[in-house]
Amino acid sequence: MTEAPKLNSFRNGPDERGHFGQFGGRFVAETLMPLILSLEQAYKEARVDPAFHKEMGGHLVHYVGRPSPLYFAERLTEHLGGAKIYLKREELNHTGSHKVNNVLGQIMLARRMGKPRIIAETGAGQHGVATATLCARFGLKCVVYMGAVDVERQQANVFRMKMLGAEVIPVQSGSKTLKDAMNEALRDWVTNVHDTFYCIGTVAGPHPYPAMVRDFQSIIGRETREQMMAAEGRLPDSLIACIGGGSNAMGLFHPFLDDAGVEIFGVEAAGHGLSGLHAASIAGGRPGVLHGNRTYLLMDADGQIEEAHSISAGLDYPGIGPEHSWLHDVGRVTYLSATDEEALEAFQLLSRLEGIIPALEPAHAIARVIELAPKLPRDHLMVVNLSGRGDKDVPQVSEIFESRGR
Amino acid sequence: MTSRLTARFQALAADRRAALVTFITSGDPDAGTTAKILAGLPAAGADVIEIGMPFTDPMADGPAIQAGGLRALKGGMTLAKTLALVGDFRKGDDATPIILMGYYNPIYIYGVERFLVDAKAAGVDGLIVVDLPPEEDDELCLPALAAGLAFIRLATPTTDDKRLPTVLRNTSGFVYYVSITGITGSATPDFGAVAAAVSRIKQHTDLPVCVGFGVRTAEHARAIAEGADGVVVGSALVEAVRASLDAEGRATPATVPAVLDLVARIAEGAHAVRK
Question: Do the Cβ atoms of A47 and A215 come closer than 8 Å?
């Protein structure tokens, strides 16, 4: 995290004011600005403090269970008959997804700043569960905002959060999904700014969140480098990850951005298809300003935000992290998309071939692997970020299959 | 500062009384009703009119103003139609200052340059854009000042003495002091703390200081007018619109009088104080 920046690097962003090219920034109400500036200062100090890293490193090993394995998916590779596919097993982390990496970092920062109350927003519930878990571990009060629609479709996670002592507030405004949960969390923060730390779950929001969350998640890519060198003696040829806000993807991608030989793919949720309801902000949106940053957004001609749709509650957001918007504009990362149907197919394929039930989110990445891998040579090394496990999605998926008589 | 705002605050100062600043949402529940309310506001006692530009995701506003914005959007309100409403109002009133209040994205999508030209031409005097702090002044604040529109900034209880000069640097028209840490229409402010904050701000600027968030009654308005140069009322008026609608959310004959009567009552409180 403290390595010296290189010139002509894709890894130097953001600038002092939090911009990645035209994206990013700090578009928030004045009430929040003093706190955001003090958070930026606290993070600047923490990231160069060896004691902070030492403590976090201990928790990552003994509590989270890192490093997560880089697993050669032998049967999936055989089945597809092309690239050699490795899965970065973030679903084996404590709480079942990559979210815990970032939450640990932010909770340690909140403790440093003396904030006893933590708020979070959550879509699928994975970030909410991770936040509730670490608040329990460190004895902090936890309030999680979740769209009422998501509360309905992710009940297992709602129950988990409550068992962990968190208060879950169903959000009834707007489309009742992640975007509205984020609005409510911001309102809470504006109201309780004196004692509250807002633990944002993805690489979005006002600066310094996109950079800070990316840094905490970059452990995924750093481990992958080492593990791939140990397994194959060289770097991978391609990386692929699903994108809602894009934190699991940014965590995997960032340490490889300056390796020109590594091709990088992000996969957005195409929902019912890009001409119908979807959540693909880059493929179907344009630059705008929401939730504290400028980034690609789904909106109408008058700049009103449109509702996103994805089968996966974790990808169901009308925006994307600003660094992804920039990486798209400069052409370093290729952004693809996968529909609900393709994700469901991939969900089943991985379950049956590897005995790994993926979350619906990374099933979107697997869906593009199914298409890309067969066209690639057998010595091509591909890493897929398996960002979460599918336990939370089993009831929803089984309901869909039952309704179709499968 | 634009001439209408300057003239209005100078006249109020000469009269030794505080301004009543009234907020309504453009197009809530329809453009025709908004036009009638606008036309009646000056006679009801509004000294400055703030018009909300509806946005789907108003993160600093409470449920009342959010619901008003969604009613307006459902009725087809757009930024262009809001500017047209101001233009129509100006045909009958060239003295009452008008301020547009909202969030940045609709303006950004409309195009900043085009927006400033059209707003000026329609007769807009100033802007309040909640999600543009001084750190993002290049986006709209500086171009607005160059175009002759006031850029009114919010100062809040979290804005300490160290930050205040940053907040005031490019502020014009007046300073809008947010009386609570919270969203619009939530808690009732602590009037003693508000008075102290207003005098603190006045040590840093010669601009008028108006106070809003949580003002619902003539008594609240009177308490704030003791120390401030103006009182802002918003959620209470939007709530009056909502309470007057029929079951389908349409305006009724009661809608316009409900808002104007409430403005008249609050104006009595705001104007009762002679300084």
Answer: yes
β-pair partners for A266: A241, A335
A33 interaction partners in chain B (CB closer than 8 Å): 133-135, 158, 163
Strand A292-297, strand A23-27: pairing: antiparallel
Quick check: A174 pLDDT over 90?
Answer: no
Q: How far apart are CA A83 and CA B109, in angstroms?
A: 43
pLDDT tens-digit map of A275-292: 999 999 999 999 999 999
How far is it, in rounded angstroms, from Cα A57 to Cα A59? 6
State the count of interchain CB pairs (< 8 A) between A and B: 113
Q: Check: CB of residue A77 under 8 Å from CB of residue A376.
A: no
A387: annotated active-site residue: yes
> Mean pLDDT across chain B, nearest whole number?
95
Segment (H or E) for B81: helix B79-92
Q: For A191-200, write each residue's pLDDT tens digit.
A: 999 999 999 9
Contact flag B57-A27 (C-beta cutoff 8 Å): no
Q: What is the pTM of this model?
A: 0.96
Q: Is A391 exposed, middle or buried (0-12, 13-18, 19+ CB in 10 A)?
A: middle
- Give the pLDDT of residue B2: 56
Our answer to whether residue A121 is catalytic in this structure is yes
In which element (H, E) is residue B9 found?
helix B3-14
pLDDT at residue A206 greater than cutoff 80: yes
Q: How far is B14 from chain A (nearest CA, A)?
A: 32
Distance set, CA B63 to CA A339, B16, B196 (Å): 34, 35, 29
Measured in angstroms, the CA of B154 and the nearest CA of chain A are apart by: 7
Cα–Cα dist B166/B141, whole Å: 13
**Separation of first and last alpha carbons in chain B:** 24
> Are residues A137 and A62 in contact, defined by beta-carbon separation less than 8 angstroms?
no
Query: Closest residue of B to A183, CA-based?
Result: B59
Which among B59, B106, B154 has CB closest to A187? B59
- Helices within A93-234 (DSSP H only): 99-112, 126-138, 148-153, 155-163, 178-191, 209-217, 219-232
Reading the block at residue A24, the tokens are 């990013």
Residues of A within an 8 Å Cβ radius of B: 17, 25-35, 173-174, 179-180, 183, 186-187, 190-194, 288-292, 297, 299, 301-305
